[in-house]
Structures are given as structure tokens and as C-alpha cells.
Write a structure and sequence with these properties.
Blueprint lengths: L8 E9 L4 E10 L7 E4 L6 H14 L4 E5 L16 H4 L5 H6 L4 H18 L4 H10 L1 E5 L9 E2 L9 H5 L1 H18 L10 H14 L7 H9 L5 E2 L2 E2 H4 L2 H16 L10 E2 L2 H5 L7 E6 L5 H20 L9 E5 L15 H10 L5 E7 L7 H4 L4 E4 L5 H15 L6 H9 L5 E6 L6 E5 L12 H6 L1 H4 L2 H7 L12 H7 L18 E3 L10 E17 L4 E12 L13 E2 L16 E2 L9 H18 L2 E6 L4 E2 L6 H44 L5 H23 L6 H19 L5 H31 L8 E5 L6 E14 L1
Amino acid sequence: MQTYEKLGVFYLGKEYDLESKQPKEELVLLKSKDLTTHAVIIGMTGSGKTGLGIGLIEEAIIDNIPVIAIDPKGDLGNLALTFPRLRGEDFRPWINLQEASNKGVSPDEYAEAQAELWRKGLSDWGQDGSRIEKLRNEADVKIYTPGGSAGIGVSVLKSFNAPPQVIIDDKESYRDRISVTTISLLSLIGIQADPFKSREFILISNILDYNWSSGKNLSLPELINAIQKPPMDKVGVMDMERFYPSKDRISLAMMLNNLLASPGFEAWIEGESLDVNRFLYDHVGKPQVSIFSIAHLSESERMFFVTMLLNEVLSWVRSQPGTGSLRAILYMDELFGYLPPTANPPSKGPLLTLLKQARAYGLGLVLSTQNPVDLDYKALSNAGTWFIGRLQTERDKERVLAGLEGAAAGGKFDKARTEQILAGIGQRVFYLHSVHEDEPVIFNTRWVMSYLAGPLTRNQIAALPSINVTSSERSVTSESVTANTTPISSSVIQETTHENEMSSAAPILPPQIKQVYLPVKFGAGGKITYRPSVIGMADVLYSNTKHKVSTSISYTLLTPLHDGPVALDWSEAETLDIGIHDLDSNPLEGLSFEGYPVAATNAKNYDSWKRLLTQYIRTQKSLKLLSCPGLKVVSEFGEDERDFRIRLQHLVHEKRDEDLEAMKKKYASKIQTLTNRKQRAEQAVEKQSSRASQRKMDAAVSAGSAILGALFGRKSISATSVSKIGTAVKSTSRALKSGEGIEQAKELLESIEVQLDELNLELEQQLVEISNRYDVMKEELEEVEIRAISENIAVHLVGLAWVPHEK
């Protein structure tokens, strides 16, 4: 096999034979500098698009290329899941418990199967754990959650600070900066501003220009005040009051003030500043990967943040010296909505500028999408490298072909051949078109080193070591602690800790003991101290095949510590409604620490308490649900009886409509049969007297009308309807008896009468059954108790928790 560990080369996979549908031995190696002309990845869901993107970022990490990744779906956080030892226990916290349950295996077995899958997959592609170790050591992976608290926060308000002088001096860049900042801010409060017509846009942009041009920073509160009392008297040649009266300006200020005062907005002003340089490199200048997970944001919030980030990236680009090499990568996992062909969302301006100008400064854009139709292919013609995976529709293929043709810009491009190739592409197979190469290449993507666990939840993001631990710190906190490290003696700790002692600093405990700090409640008064307790956090899968239940629940339990033979009892625990992301890793300044029992200093106790927590959850924290035996439906976790019955009513309405439709079809056929036989009976008595014939005709019609009216009339079927049917049939019988020579007709109608009686009986039974079946409010619900087995209990944390206590 060829060697691919070459600086400046990305190992993407192997060439692929479309006829044999097998990978060849030739490796596909992409020159990193080719990405300075940008790249586009297009493929439908399931095409392997995310795997290709993650693999490309992995190669960038190994090549010491920093990456900023915008992650609207939550998949890119998988880059933090790298396990050099490839052990099942490493995969265990990140597996999908639902998939394990569906496959009928325990979580441990499923984790080991995933580890084996990764070992084999990597081996097949010439990789192993040592390459994963290299990946981990080359760069940190940091996950930011702007507007959220699961990952690292981002303070977006820094973007209202005055830009660098180099930007101010560049009139075009300065104008773009003001325009994009204004549009993105207004979009956050639901205003789609036109730069030439919108008073809101013109006012705010003038306020920004007034302050920025003199080098003055501007916070959001200051901007709100400036809207009410603008620093300028005129806008253009018009007086401010005539252009934008004060009462109207107050309305705009109130909208921004409401945004600032909303509870969720705190997350937008906390965290690291929006500094691209610090996103690309850590405190010692080492390249890193900064992933911005925005799946939790609303559409307007996503647009706001993406636009602000792109604006900062553009400013950073313009401050860099020109280069022909790849300096950094900006990866966007889903482009749909941010670069449409006709509309002009706030994100489109900076994206277009970056596509045109960033290559000269060494920034490569890699733009990925599963929606190839609604994209500005004229803008994407600036991309020199295209990765095309499996496409869903002919329309998708037509748009992609048009984009490729534009990207070729008069170069070699065989549209017919390309169309034929795209039709035969399967999963993890891509068509690579590059302006830097003479011929396109079909290749199979390599196995990624990161574990593809799917979109990470908020709790999973918060639990990632990379949120609080960098690679430079792993040498101290990882399993590879050197043998000559001197451990802290427990005897020393015992000599310096007493239950009733107060301390001004957190105790020094063995590194195996995790210490966390609960937040101080808002509005707390008086003197506050930290009191020790033990915290346990676990995810539990409750599974029951009989009732078709598979539910995951997260528990956070806080239990007091005692000084004595039994230091801890989980049955005394209080259940807290907080997650890992709500805990602090450092104490608040100025708070004292109460004394703690000696048992809290022994790391082995926490292993024992972890086992006891699993036992406690298994025996005492059962899942209690409601069951409706008649419908064989079980309530969901957190669904009370009222909500459960409402849901049951909706279910039975659907079932009822299906049953009524089936009944109509069933009895319509029988009614048609009786009608045909009635017609033959009429023919038999036609020769009889007109009076007898008339009586028989009326009675037969009456019977038929009663049946039709009961089943298909506007009125519902009732006991009265059934009675009328029977009466009409008896009338028919009497009419036939009064005639002469009607024995044959009599026998026929008697047969019809028997069948009608049977039909009446069936109708009555159906009515009773439906009435009983669909009265869910009278249904006796039963309680179902489901216990979790030990294998389905994943304990994420058992540690010493310092709880703020108000004296």
C-alpha cells in the first residue's frame, strides 16, 4: 500500500471500480493546497457525506491545519470521540442504547461490537490506534454552543465593538461590516431589512458608523440607548425627528430591550469572545478545531450567529498576509438556506465575499449540503473541488451537473459521461472533480477514526472531556500518568481534614475524585458556604418487550455524607432537575467550605458508591406507566392519566374510522345482494293483481330503504333503525300472503327475511362492540412497573458535590 502520511496530503480513500463495485488499491490523496480554491460536498442523506467531511477534517488535524466548523445538525461533535485503544469500554458511554435494545444485546456487548467494527474498519483501510493517538495529540477539539449552556459559551456582543483599523481604512470592508452586523441583528428580532428602504437599518448602521469611525466600542445596552437618543441630528439631509420620530424609535428600542431582557439571552453574552484567531489556535499557538453546534437554536438565531461568525472570519481573513498554501479551513455542514440562488439572507453577503477573496489568504471553504437544488451555483462556481455522492432525484442531478459545468469554466468537462457516472454511485462512493486535475476520480471514502455516534445530545456534549480538558492537559489527567508521579497520600489528607473545620479553599483530594460545584440560587441572601454531598448522574434505559417500552431517563441524585460506618445511603438522595452542563468546575470566589467526613477523601469509596448507585436505581427507581389493555397501549414517561386518555381518544378515533369504513364495505355487498333478489321476487309476482303487487312492492322498498338509511343515511344506526328494518320485512311477508299464486315469491322473500334478521343481529353486535371499544373514558387503566437491568444503567458521574448552603 502507498504511504499517505505526507504533510500537505489528505488521505481520502481508494479509487473505486463502478463495474465490480469494489475499491481498488490506488489511494486517493488530495493536496491540501487545492482546498484554497474551496470545495463543495453534495450528497443525499445516507450517501456518506458526513463521513467524508469528518475524514477531511481529521486529515486537516493531522496536517496541523486549524478548522472552524459550523454544525447545524450536531454530527460534527463526533470528532471529539477518538479512542486510540479501541476498547469497548471507551465506546460504551457514547453508544445508542436504543439500537442495542433493538438488536437484542446488552449495552456492553453492543459497545464491544462497535469497537470491533472500528478495529476492522480501520485495519481494512490501513489505519490503527496509533494513527488515532496521533490525531488526538495534534489538536484539541472544542465544541461551542452559542446561545446554549451544554458546550463552551460564545459572547456574540463583542461583534459590536469597533473593528480593527485595517478594516476601517478599507472602505468596502468597513461598509460590509456595518451592513452585515445591522442586518443580522435586525433578523434576530424578526425584521427583514432592506438597506435602501428600511429606517431601522439606516438608523442602526449610522449609529454604528458614528461610533466605530472614532474607534468607540458599542455594547447592546449602549446601542439601545443610542436608538432612543441618537448621537446625530440628521440622517442625510433630513432631521432625525422627521426621518424617524422618537415614538417609533422607542418601539424599536423596546424590541431590542425585550431581546436583551429575555431569560435565554444570557447565554449570548457569556463565554469566550467571538475571536477567530482564538478559535483557530489555542493559548500556546497550537492549531485546534472549533465546532459551533447550533442545532439547538431557532432558525432566526442560527442565521444571526452564522452571519456574525462569517463576518468575523471575513475580518480575520483580510488581516492576514497573502499565501498560496492552506492556512485554515472553514467547514459548513449544511449550506441549505444560507446561500440561496435568489433570496438574500444576511449570511449570503459574507459567504459570497469569502468565496471570492479568501483563497488569496489561505482560507479554504468546504461547503456541504444534502439539498442541492436551492443553492446559488453561480457563487459555487468559485469552488475548484467538487465531491458528488449519491443524489436523490433527477432534478438534483441536473442542478449539480449545471454547477459542475460552471465550475469547469471552459475546461474539460464531459457532461454525458458525468451524468452516467452519477447514476451508478452508491453509499460512501463519491465523484471527485477538481480543476487541479485532468480527469475526475471515483473513490470510496476511507474509514474515519472518530466514532460516528450520531448527533450528540446536550448532556453528551457537556460530558465531553474536550469541554474542560485540552490535549496539553491530558498528560496529567489521562490514563497514561507516568509511574514516577507522586500520588497524594490519604493519610496526609486525613490529618488536615476534619468534619467541623471550615476552610477558605476547596480541599486537595486524589485526582480520581471528581469535585463539582452546584450553582448558587438567584436571590440568595445571608452568608453562603459550600457543604459537601455526593452527587450521582446516570442515564437509564427502561426496556420491556411485552409492553413495547424502550425509554431513556437521566437521573441526578444528591445525597448527604455522614461520619460513621455508613457514610452514604442513596435512599436519602434528593432528585435534582439539573444536568452535567449546569455544574461548575470551579467554586465561586469568597465562599468558605464546611468540613467533610474522612470517607470523602478515599477514592475507593466512590467506586463502591457507584456500584451502590446502580443497585439503588435497579431496585428503587422503577419506571411506572399506565396501560390500556383493551388497546394494548402504554403511556409514555411523564405522561399523566389525563394526557394519556387524550392520546387514547385520538388513537381510537383513527381505529373507529377504519372499522366503520370496513363495516360499510362489508354490509354494502350484502345489501346489494338483497336488492337483486328483491328484483327477482318482484318479477315473480308481476302477473298477480295490481293491488297485491303494489303492496308487495311498497313493503320491499320499505325494507330496502330502512337498510340503506340505517347504514348510509345522515342519522347514525340505532336500535330504532334496526326495529324499522324488522317491521318492514314483516310487512313484506304479510303482503305476499295476501296474494294468489305467490308461493314461489313467498319462499324467496322468506329467505330474504332470514338474511335480514341475521343482518340486523350482526348490526346490533357491531354497534355494541364499537360502543364498548371506543369509550376510553370508562376504560380501567392498569399500572405497569418496569425495572432497569444493570447493563442498561450508565453512571456518568459519582463525585464530591459542593452545595451552596445559606446560613
